[in-house]
Design goal:
The structure holds 2 protein chains of 2 kinds. Chain A is an alpha/beta fold. Chain A is built from 16 helices and 18 strands. In chain A, the strands form 4 sheets. In chain A, strands 10-9-11-12-13-17-18 form a 7-stranded mixed β-sheet, sandwiched between helices. The model of chain A is unreliable at 1-8, 14-40, 43-60 and 67-76 (pLDDT under 50). Chain B is mainly alpha-helical. Chain B has 11 helices and 2 strands; from the N terminus they run ααααββααααααα. In chain B, strands 1-2 form a two-stranded antiparallel sheet. The longest helix of chain B has 32 residues, at 2-33. The N and C termini of chain B lie far apart (54 Å). In chain B, 55% of the residues are buried. Classes of the chains: A alpha/beta, B mainly alpha.
Chain lengths: 481, 305
Amino acid sequence: MSINTTSRRWFAVAAAAALLTASCTAVDDEPEPAATQDDSTSEETGSNDETETETETDDSAADTGAATETDDATAGGEIDFAEGVTQEACPDAVNPDNGCIYLGVLSDLTEGPFAALAVPITDAQRAYWAQVNEDGGIGGFDVDIDTYTRDTKYQPAEHAAAYQQIEPNILALAQTLGTVNTESVLGDMDANDVVAVPASWWSGYSFQENDQGLIMEFGYSYCVESMVGLDWYAENHGEVTSVAAVGYPGDYGGDSAAGAQMWAEANGVSDVTVVPTGPNQVTGGQDAVVSAVLAAQPDVVILAVGPAEAGEIVGKLAGGGFTGRFLGSLPTWNPALLQSAAAPALTALYNHLSPIEQWDGTSEGNAAMKESLGGEEPVNAGYIIGWAMSYPMHALLEKAAGEGDLTRAGLRAAVDGLEVDFAGMAETITYGGDGADVAVSGLIVGTPSAEAPLGIETTDDFYQGSTFEGLDYTQACSASS
Amino acid sequence: MMAAFLTAVLAGIGDGAVYALIAVSFVLIYRATGVLNFAQPGLLILGTWVTSVLVVDRGLPFWVAVVLAVVAVAVVSMGVERVAIRPMIGRPVFSTALVTVGLFIVLLVLAFRLFAARARTIGDPWQLERWCLVEGEVTCAVSLYQHHAGKVAVTAVVLTVLGLWLGRSRIGLAMRATSLDQEAAMAQGINVGRMFSLSWALGGGLAALGGVLLAADGSVVQANDALFALVALPALILGGIDSFRGAVVGGIVMGLVSGVARVYQPVHAPWLGPNFENVAPYLVMILVLLVRPYGLFGTKEVQRV
């Protein structure tokens, strides 16, 4: 081998290393794994610390807007803890004298289909817990969600592998993105007593037979969204005689379409057209959807797709003379749509549906969220989701700490009956029930507007329809896959 | 029903033109280096991003931005070849192909970084404008979106110019000689390494142009739309992995198969399930592989036994 060749190879290796370094994901470099407790351990805190922690925890609740009725356990002096909780401080701890609660995040952070939404979701969660830590932590512990954040690329196999890797070191999952991915580890979560907050809105999470009581869903499901959305449409735009549901098959579009069909059945509407589709990178375009909807000529189209597909569908249908309206599910919107050719059609014919306040919301939680970004707007509404979805885990940790049991079993037991107040960002949920006992249906309706933050102006707050209330909600609307 | 068929055919040809362009970008690199470059999706989305930045953020005219984006991605592609692929010469082709898979991941992650979780527009001249070819009773019965026509026109012009250049210029001749026999080409004084760089530059540039055309649909584009490039693989297999003509024919055929399946399968064969149009090209690909493993126009491999 010549010297020239050797040096070229070293150059190639160095360049490849540089490329890989540049490609590091949003996940922080992993610090040294924190020591975990094999056996349940009790921590006693000194009286001075007790007083300070109690005060700071209350501040934490105030600063994030979270409301909890749980007393601080450190005032009592003892908290049991085991896996995922250490007496040692978190890496780069805000409060070096506190112990550390490790929460896992299994998300789509680089190359999967929901990365654009998942990255700001995760950013918001980091900001939320950083705020909690700044305010003293929970029961004498800081919360770390960075160490065990893993990119699962929206693939069940990656999700399962990452779960197996982090499971011994976490107390719970602050985020598990995707229904199918979450289902891939639900059996293990059940065996390990790992509670999780999902970044997906499948109707099955409202039933313990599906989630074993481990999933702390927030906001309504896609299925409920369709039902309440159609109620809202009928009340605001006139009688509905025909509906089309366009979406990706499975827990997203499938659940949404099932909701539209259930609404139609309950309201005596027989003309329902279901149009399955896929993302543009798979289908190449949405012309088939446009043809199908033009042929059906429904009064209203429910969309459960991505932003690119929503823009193309609405724009082409409007250009093709379609005069019906569109209701878009939570992930269909992106502010960049207002710069696309579809903007006039979207502004005229589209309404965005969400279970969470939008950026123009005025709640206490919304104000805390905005403060975390110092007045800047996030890239999209994923940040709102990430902030709001942190309340259930916060409330759960506060309750468990208050009961002196920060073990996984303690957390799991604390889920039942836990009432979570989202500081006005979403409807209050009481966990532990089934069907209508746990499901919420408050709908935030938005209208595209170039003047509004993130391009959506709220036009209706927590609208409640009548169809869902009248349903016998005893099982999931659709299968998850 | 005839109107639906015509609309599907027109849309299918429009999509097929983009498949063809991307398939040709694969063929260019394959013929020169013997490597199926799985990094093409990354180059494709990079071209889309550069175009969007130049048009939306910098205010450049669309076509100027497209040319600059194609050149920029061609340079990146050349650099990638020099750094990551050239050292693999003499190694098994399989190893080099795996390197391109790694490059694909790196470029994709880079694209996600560049897009920064934002959807983008590219400001193409066609937007959602369309021509009504046949008026219906209430609305237009058969229409042609200008972006579909634009995709066909751009692909036709670019591939014609490329074909003429490869066929008649000295560099084109040298590239063809390299693709046929690298050692013989070196013996004739052809700088084979330079030909490799050139083929990667052309392949990357075409992928970038494919990305721009993909994004020209009146909506927004996101980083994960890069995966669209992989849909061109069935077209590549159908036409023959080393045939320019095959790539073009394969692309158009796959666009048509997919477009027609979208319209007719849900009506006549709903039992095949939703989104069958995405599967149809792969079924055609499998059929072709069974009957003509080297594709419609590919070189039949002869092995001495």
